[in-house]
Design brief:
Blueprint (H helix, E strand, L loop, with lengths): L2 E7 L6 H11 L7 E7 L6 H11 L4 E6 L6 H11 L4 E4 L8 H13 L5 E6 L6 H17 L8 E8 H8 L8 H8 L3 E6 L13 H15 L2 H29 L7 H35 L18
Parallel strand pairs: 1-2, 1-4, 2-3, 5-7
Antiparallel strand pairs: 4-6, 5-6
The structure holds uridine-5'-diphosphate and magnesium ion.
């Protein structure tokens, strides 16, 4: 098998067959073998039935259908799809035809034209979002990029085509709270970004409410940086220093002959210093907790892309 299409589906009853037919049409002259890995993410509509029919009626096409016991979310569907994908190359693509199969052909030709490229990622050239959502996304990338060691590219979607080395690397990250954008950035490899235009949804509605997007963004930040945990230490240090400076100013003032500091001044100085010490302690706990967190995530320590070494000859 040369190419696997991984298609997460949640309540896409009117899209799965259309997706299959469109892809068959566009891929008609494709000289490579390919398979469909549909992951039905606990749909409550007729997605499962329609996928079963598709499977029964198209014996000659390589179709796999994985049905989840409930809705686990797109990230889980992607993971399971990758686990079941047998192609040398894998493409993650939505079921709603917003991401066109024609773009997959484009990505294929990019990957095939250059053996050094491991992954082709399509990013939306035209944004279909309101100003507030756009602002939120902009802020999200600014925050996460300033704290995280991994670089997050704006608008990079999970509409990607990649080689099996990238697939294996992504599968080696077994963390429960998954954030694909971050995971693909974290595993590295040579990624080429190409623009694409997201079309209108073939049928149905987006599964992303503002609340869901917000939760997803927050989960992404907390999966890829322990900075919020350590932030307390920063505030604490500031407060502690402010307390010391305030105390010093008061001492100098009194030494110069001014009246003794008032009770309020003493209280503020104490609050700043004691509060600062407490926050520093909290931040220190945060640093350890951050380490425990990354250990519990159990990510591989590194991902090796290739090795050059000479075989030892027997003497
Ligand atoms: N999806 C999924 N599980 C979910 C939500 C979405 O598998 O819990 C799938 C959905 O069926 C679609 C893809 O993820 O194929 C993208 O979802 P959607 O079109 O709602 O997102 P948008 O294109 O609006 O970002
Ligand atoms: Mg969509």
């Amino acid at each position: 098998m040369e190419l696997s299409l991984v298609i997460p589906c949640y309540n896409e009853e009117n899209n799965v067959v259309a997706f299959f037919n469109e892809t068959q049409r566009v891929f008609a002259d494709l000289p490579i073998t390919y398979e469909y890995v549909f992951v039905n993410d606990g749909s409550s509509d007729k997605t499962a039935e329609n996928l079963s029919l598709l499977f029964e009626q198209n014996e000659s096409s390589n179709i796999k259908v994985i049905n989840f016991s409930r809705n686990f979310g797109k990230e889980a569907a992607i993971y399971s799809g990758l686990e079941n994908a047998e192609g040398e190359l894998t493409c993650i693509i939505d079921a709603d035809l917003q991401q066109r199969p024609e773009v997959v052909l484009e990505m294929l030709s990019v990957l095939q034209s250059d053996g050094d490229i491991d992954c082709v990622c399509a990013y939306q050239s035209k944004r279909r979002e309101s100003k507030p959502v756009s602002f939120m996304k902009e802020s999200f990338y600014r925050i996460i990029n300033s704290f995280s060691d991994t670089e997050f590219i704006r608008d990079a979607s999970d509409f990607r085509l990649f080689r099996s080395n990238v697939k294996q690397a992504v599968l080696s990250l077994t963390e429960y709270h998954r954030f694909s954008k971050g995971i693909f950035a974290w595993v590295g490899f040579n990624t080429k970004y190409i623009p694409y235009e997201a079309k209108e949804r073939n049928d149905g509605e987006t599964k992303w409410s503002l609340k869901k997007l917000f939760r997803y963004a927050f989960s992404g930040i907390t999966s890829f940086t322990a900075a919020p945990l350590k932030a307390a230490a920063g505030f604490g240090t500031l407060s502690f220093i402010a307390g010391l400076v305030y105390a010093l100013v008061e001492i100098i003032r009194i030494a110069a002959g001014a009246a003794a500091a008032s009770r309020l001044t003493l209280l503020i100085i104490l609050l700043l210093i004691i509060g600062g010490i407490q926050l520093i302690c909290l931040g220190t706990v945060g640093v350890y907790l951050g380490k425990v967190f990354s250990q519990v995530q159990n990510r591989p320590i590194c991902i090796v892309k290739s090795v050059l070494k000479r075989e030892k000859t027997e003497k």
